[in-house]
Amino acid sequence: MLSLVVLISGTGSNLRALLEATREPGYPARVIAVGADRDASGLEHAAEFGIPTFTVPFREYASREQWGSALLAAIGEYAPDLVVLSGLMRLVPDNVVSALSPNLINTHPAYLPEFPGAHGVRDALASGASQTGASIIVVDNGVDTGSIIVQERVPILADDTEESLHERIKPVERRLLVDTVRRIADGLDLSAR
């Protein structure tokens, strides 16, 4: 059984999808803890499912590296097989990537390498593109530059707003995440990426 720590910053909709998948008979992974970099509303999903939570507030540390060390210590208490950045809206520092890679994955609401960064949905709309997507990647030290595990296209409609486009990307992102975790549990080698 693959053990996961999931890190979030917001509402945790991808986290919720993973937690619901773990209730399915035969799903080969379980979330053992959920962490956040702030007081995130998504931590309530973990509480509902009886999953321990932790918060490592970024603002309490003098540097990203110090925050990263504290985050690693909190994650280390659970010794997960895989860490999932699922809406964590903060770049993890090099020490976190070095310690966890390649067993550190991220979800992104764009078809990478198109539209990296925190505003991928807005940037896709602003570019006039006809499509964007969702991607799951192995985290590296860049901004959404890691090896792509899986991705899928989502069309951009003429009347899309940032909110409506994001709402259509989210179900794709959730499905890709749940499937990717299953594939990793079933033996997908992330180090080969």
UniProtKB/TrEMBL annotation:
Pathway: Purine metabolism; IMP biosynthesis via de novo pathway; N(2)-formyl-N(1)-(5-phospho-D-ribosyl)glycinamide from N(1)-(5-phospho-D-ribosyl)glycinamide (10-formyl THF route): step 1/1. It is an enzyme of class 2 (transferase). (6R)-10-formyltetrahydrofolate binds at residues 64, 89-92, 106. GO terms for molecular function: phosphoribosylglycinamide formyltransferase activity. One of its GO terms (biological process) is 'de novo' IMP biosynthetic process. Residues 4-180 form the Formyl transferase N-terminal domain. The keyword Amino-acid biosynthesis does not apply. The keyword Transferase applies. It catalyses: N(1)-(5-phospho-beta-D-ribosyl)glycinamide + (6R)-10-formyltetrahydrofolate = N(2)-formyl-N(1)-(5-phospho-beta-D-ribosyl)glycinamide + (6S)-5,6,7,8-tetrahydrofolate + H(+). The active site is at 108 (proton donor). GO terms for cellular component: cytosol. Keywords: Purine biosynthesis, Transferase. Pfam families: Formyl_trans_N. The record marks 144 as: Raises pKa of active site His. This is Phosphoribosylglycinamide formyltransferase. It comes from Mycetocola lacteus. The gene is purN.
